């Protein structure tokens, strides 16, 4: 999957995913680059790290088993989905998602309403919108509340990041400078 970024002088660049932002390889592209994969069904452009979910959850887990994932399920015909996506696309959340380094997927169910029940049943949910966060170290999905604030999402991402750091440091010897003196 390729995503667009803006390089120096405003020149668009194509970035490969699913590598975290710091590891993405970018190359300059012409202004005619197809951005269809970066738009919701109503034409809304997806910002920053977001990309449309084009495969099953299992596909993304198999491709990046150790990478955190956030998936936002919704449909452009529901006001609550649009409100949730507005929060997800905010500058505050986008900045946190870049720092977090996870795979950020939007599952737009607007054009396939029959699949809503099937998609949401995987998480024991029945209504849109739904945002879930995958913690690769615990191998678990964590659903966000149906209604959440930008701050709640940033906190949830930070706690998942903290869990990853703890798992990464588990079993490593502690140096003297890392111990607390009493």
From TrEMBL:
Residues 158-174 have a biased composition (Polar residues). SUPFAM superfamilies: Thioredoxin-like. InterPro entries: Thioredoxin-like_sf. Residues 25-41 have a biased composition (Basic and acidic residues). It comes from the Bacteria. Residues 1-45, 155-182 are annotated as: Disordered. Gene3D superfamilies: Glutaredoxin. This is Thioredoxin domain-containing protein. It comes from Oceaniferula spumae.
